[in-house]
Design a protein that fits this description.
Layout lengths: L1 H30 L8 H4 L5 E3 L7 H10 L22 H9 L3 E8 H6 L4 H5 L16 E11 L4 E9 L8 H15 L4 E4 L6 H6 L18 H9 L2
Parallel strand pairs: 4-5
Antiparallel strand pairs: 1-2, 2-3, 3-4
C-alpha cells in the first residue's frame, strides 16, 4: 500500500512538473515578440560611389536633385510662405558656383535603387511641367543622388553649403559621408574654422556631423540694403 501511495505521489509530482513546464513554455510563447521578417535590401549597404571631381556634376541633374529635396538657393531676405513652391536654381549661377567652390563632393548610385526605394514614374511626372529630369533613368545608370560643397579662403576659414541627398535615400548615412569628406579635406589643409549655413530643420543633421554653436556667440547676418531691388532687377532682365 505504501509503495502504491509513493508511486501515485511520484506520478502526481511528475505530472505537476510537466504541467508547470508546459505552462511556462506557453506563457513565454504568448509574451515573446513575434520575430519580424528581415528585409535584406534594407540592411544591405548601398553601392554608391563618391567623387570630388566637379567635372562629373551635371548642373541640370544637380538642379533637379535640389528641387526634389526642396532645397532653395533663393535670396533669403524674408521667410517664404509655407505653401510657396521652391523655384529651380538658375543653371548659369549654379554652374559658376560649382566651378568656384573649393571642394565639391558628389555621390552617385544606380538608378534602380531609386525605383526600389519607392520612386517611380509618378514622382518624375510631377516635374515634367518644369522640363526637369529627376535622374531616375534606366536600370543600371549611375545617377547623382547626393551633393555638397565648401567655399574657402584657403587659409583660415571655410563654409559648407548645399548638402542634399535624394529623398528616397535619406537617413542612410550618405549626407554624413559628404560632410565628413569635406571636413577631412579642410583639416588636411590646416583649416579648422568651418561653418555651415543651415535651417532649423537641418540643425540636428549638422550637429550629428560634429557642428555646434559658435563659442563666440556670433550669428549669421545677411546684407539687405538695396539687395532686393538689385536682385529683382537682375533676375527679371
Amino acid at each position: 500500500m505504501g509503495l502504491l501511495l509513493r508511486a501515485s505521489c511520484s506520478a502526481s509530482l511528475l505530472s505537476s512538473a510537466a504541467s508547470a513546464k508546459v505552462a511556462r513554455l506557453t506563457t513565454l510563447a504568448l509574451f515573446s515578440p513575434t520575430p519580424k521578417p528581415i528585409n535584406p535590401r534594407a540592411r544591405a549597404p548601398l553601392p554608391i560611389s563618391i567623387s570630388m571631381d566637379p567635372a562629373l556634376v551635371d548642373p541640370a541633374h544637380l538642379q533637379a536633385l535640389m528641387l526634389a529635396c526642396a532645397h532653395s538657393c533663393a535670396l533669403r531676405l524674408s521667410p517664404a510662405a509655407p505653401a510657396s513652391p521652391v523655384e529651380p536654381v538658375d543653371l548659369g549661377k549654379l554652374r559658376t558656383a560649382i566651378a568656384h567652390s573649393f571642394i565639391v563632393v558628389s555621390v552617385f548610385c544606380g538608378a534602380r535603387y531609386l525605383t526600389d526605394a519607392g520612386e517611380g514614374e509618378g514622382e518624375e511626372q510631377r516635374f515634367l511641367g518644369l522640363g526637369l529630369d529627376l535622374g531616375l533613368g534606366r536600370q543600371g545608370e549611375q545617377r547623382l543622388v547626393g551633393f555638397g560643397r565648401a567655399v574657402s579662403d584657403l587659409g583660415l576659414t571655410a563654409s559648407v553649403h548645399d548638402v542634399v541627398v535624394h529623398p528616397s535615400l535619406q537617413r542612410r548615412g550618405i549626407g554624413q559621408k559628404i560632410v565628413d569628406k569635406i571636413t577631412s579635406v579642410l583639416h588636411s589643409r590646416g583649416i579648422y574654422d568651418i561653418s555651415a549655413l543651415c535651417t532649423e530643420k537641418e540643425r540636428s543633421f549638422f550637429e550629428a556631423c560634429g557642428f555646434g554653436d559658435d563659442m563666440m556667440g556670433s550669428t549669421t547676418m545677411l546684407y539687405t540694403r538695396n539687395v532686393q531691388m538689385l536682385y529683382n532687377k537682375n533676375t527679371h532682365k
